[in-house]
Amino acid sequence: xxxxxxxxxxxxxxxxxxxxxxxxxxxxxxxxxxxxxxxxxxxxxxxxxxxxxxxxxxxxxxxxxxxxxxxxxxxxxxxxxxxxxxxxxxxxxxxxxxxxxxxxxxxxxxxxxxxxxxxxxxxxxxxxxxxxxxxxxxxxxxxxxxxxxxxxxxxxxxxxxxxxxxxxxxxxxxxxxxxxxxxxxxxxxxxxxxxxxxxxxxxxxxxxxxxxxxxxxxxxxxxxxxxxxxxxxxxxxxxxxxxxxxxxxxxxxxxxxxxxxxxxxxxxxxxxxxxxxxxxxxxxxxxxxxxxxxxxxxxxxxxxxxxxxxxxxxxxxxxxxxxxxxxxxxx
Length: 331
Ligand SMILES: Cc1ncc(COP(=O)(O)O)c(C=O)c1O
Fold this sequence. Notes:
The protein is α+β, with helices and mostly antiparallel strands. It contains 6 helices and 18 strands. The strands form 2 sheets. Strands 1, 2, 3, 4, 5, 6, 7, 8 and 18 form a 9-stranded antiparallel sheet that branches. Helix 5 packs across helix 6. Pyridoxal-5'-phosphate binds next to helix 5.
């Protein structure tokens, strides 16, 4: 099993019409029937989220930081003039779709999990550029394999200067499809060149590290966890969790612009997000400037990244106490 789509039994849906959300509907169809003038098809009124459910040793299913995903979806909806989905309705739908597909939540020993994909689209017909009056919110799930089938390991990354993912006052801080479309060429170039993923610099000055592919960036130096502060990156829930765990471990936390040259000073670095928790970084090459920043000298993940990775996964799978109240255990 890799990070791919596997059909499950059910998805859940909710329609927004006449200024309000309707009842939760259960569907076994993988298709959507919609108007050809729907705003999601023309004007990008599309928002999504990504989170996971984990089966513990006790066989119970745990949802990680569900209300934070609900709140991020609300901020995305505000940004592209879509109606907000109430946190309680979002949570009820997540719990329902996971319970309905319980047989697809991978067993504890597999190291796999159930990926949860909520999405909202403007379905109302418009020909001029305006927000829709009708919306559809769907949540589907898919079991996904362990991110590191051969074990937690480092990978090479590349800075692509040729393409920007998002502008400083654009939509980079929101989870809308358009940001990902804007990044497809950089992502393909990185893969074609043999790298794990692409790095974006800030679009205005091309000086500071923004984020990498569909993940935030963090680095470790002098007992400090350092991560970019930028208006064009997605506020990663994994990164926020790692900052908290790093603080619990006695590290200092710095959220600030990170100039590219500083990469040569880091003791450890990683890409972080729901998919991998942490993808440790071996090196970051600047393709156009023909520079290379080697981060892991021995090619192995650093001790602090490894500790953070193990700690976060242990919370997600219920192996250690959830002292920050991040986990919802399903009955
Ligand atoms: C652009 C981008 N940055 C960062 C992340 C990591 O965010 P999270 O930790 O909430 O999954 C994601 C994945 O959702 C992403 O798509």
